[in-house]
Amino acid sequence: MEFGMNTELFQTVSSRFQSEADCIEAIIAMKWPHGFVCPRCAYTEYTRLSSRRLPLFECGKCGYQASPLVGTIFERTHLPLVKWFRALELFLLPDGISALRLSQVIEVTYKTAWLMLHKIRHTLGECDARELLSGDVKVNCDQYAYDSLRYHPAAQPYATPVVAGCTVTEFGEPERVKIQLISDTRGDGQRANKHDVAAFIHKHVDVPTSTVQSYPLAFRLYLPLRKEVRAAWTSLKRTYVALGLTHLQAYLNEYTVRRDLRMSFSEEEMRQNLLQMCVSIPAIPYRQLIKRHQNAHHQKPYFAAAA
Predict the structure, then answer these.
(1) What sign for the dihedral angle of Cα 1, 96, 136, 195?
(2) DSSP for 176-187?
(3) Domain chopping of the chain, boundaries
(4) Rounded to the nearest 5°, which phi and psi values hold at 142?
(5) Nearest C-alpha neighbor of 164 from the set 87, 62, 252, 295
(6) Which tens digits make up the pLDDT trace of 267-279?
(7) Any residues with CB less than 8 A from the CB of 269 and at least 6 apart, and which?
């Protein structure tokens, strides 16, 4: 994706949210769509205090002062909200945006852009985990980053075992998709086993309301779902070049949730849905992300990318 295209989109977003006031009002409307409700006593009458950079809502009953940013991805941020809103918009590009490119477009450091994107990915993963697959469900044992042009397992250094599941339309096409990493190793020809499939179904499928068909054999997979796993690899590789295992699950969540949004909603509805997710899930702390990274040092090295 060319930088000029991102710059053009950046200007479009800028025209929609030109100030902190525009952004904070959008957050308030999303957090309290039916008006303020005190998080402590549920009272609805309030006084809006606007003496600070960001407004506070003081409960008319218990006196609690509530910030609209508490409990959201924006809590304790030192960045202007305008930059956050531009990042959310760019995140919804068909193949997403790398931290390096985002840092250039919204003019922040690479570290800041990396953290912003991972906070968004964490939010998507948390929201997606709450939505179970239901109805006609297909489940594959597959491999992410499997190169179909290389037939021998030794020629698949980055193939990683996954279990993928989807609901299907009446025409047999994948609708909602989930892809779950199984192992912290890659390139050894491993595949998910029946226990992995059972764990996936238990975690991601609403079994009482579903008809589940699993495909545990490599030569007998549900082909439309296999294509979705390949499409995830192609899309992520196009934007991030290559990804290690440390945060790969977060990137897979990013792909599947964005795919579902783009299939189901208009551009404006996608923005509203993403903002709703960001308002409903607290931000993941930086130290927690770093802890994940430190715990993954034993993993097989993978050539780096500006992710």
Answers:
(1) positive
(2) EEEEEE--S--S
(3) 132-234
(4) -140, -175
(5) 252
(6) 899 999 999 999 9
(7) none
